[in-house]
Amino acid sequence: GENVEQHPSTLSVQEGDSAVIKCTYSDSASNYFPWYKQELGKRPQLIIDIRSNVGEKKDQRIAVTLNKTAKHFSLHITETQPEDSAVYFCAATPKAAGNKLTFGGGTRVLVKP
Amino acid sequence: NAGVTQTPKFQVLKTGQSMTLQCAQDMNHEYMSWYRQDPGMGLRLIHYSVGAGITDQGEVPNGYNVSRSTTEDFPLRLLSAAPSQTSVYFCASSYSGGLVAFFGQGTRLTVV
Q: Which helix (H) or strand (E) holds A15?
């Protein structure tokens, strides 16, 4: 089955700096890669996703890049703000598997004012 | 729309007890899933369903049972609770063929 590794496990940045989280996956059949943000005590919520036919996607201050050859994808947050402090999870799934998401272990991001 | 609703929010069980975690969605989603969240391990898939009457095992199914008699409901049963099942449980749903998962608010379960 799919295996997703996520690094780093914790990330501390100064407000206004950029944050980058990296994930690698093992199953070449995976073709959908979402990122979820989970604030303390809350449910995970989708912030951005990318499909395998796209190399990069951007939404305001967040962007995701995908390298299918190397089987890795990354989340980039620019101009970080205190409200970006949360745990971020990457995930991967092959569309043929329905919604069987395989998640990375999570990255705890702390934005220091 | 209430979205995905889980009950209870908190539960303490004694070892060996059984219970059912409830999950209901009002978005007419065909896909529903149960995940458990443990520190440093992300979310791991327990069981999932692609429609009423159809269920399948995920990554960590042992000790759990599910059924899907209606599109709206997907209960998760703990047959004989063990301390290793102490976790936060999330139910999620999505459209058939869709990939975006909508999560419930979670159930924090402690087994003593």
A: none
